[in-house]
Amino acid sequence: MPPTESRVRLVRRLWEAVADGGLGTALALTEPDMEWIPHTAGGRVLTSQELLAFFNEFQGEQHISEARLYSVEEEGEAIVASGSFRLKGGGGISDFQIHIVYEFEDERLVRASTHATKADALDSIARPAAGG
Fold this sequence. Notes:
Blueprint: H1 3-21, H2 23-27, E1 35-37, H3 48-59, E2 63-75, E3 78-89, E4 92-105, E5 108-115, H4 118-126
Parallel strand pairs: 1-5
Antiparallel strand pairs: 2-3, 3-4, 4-5
């Protein structure tokens, strides 16, 4: 199987895992030392465990009730996924769109960064993070 196909398959599996069992289920599919850079964390780089704690604090009483993947595209060595999450609980429902850049070394997923817009996601590929 070509490298891009296996990368796309992994990204789709991650989104399916979030939809089926939440963020923790998806993170179980990744390496513990993987780097996560959520745009809502002010540039901080988090491990998978730190990401889970950060997201639990961020979502408060809400939980992900739906994860919809709209597109998965190859951009150079990275994969860009665009979709949305629906959070329920705490007396309400909120939807937000998200764009995630998944970076690989060989076939190993090593870093993912989230972005509010697809333009920001594509810009991050053109200008790699410091130290990366």
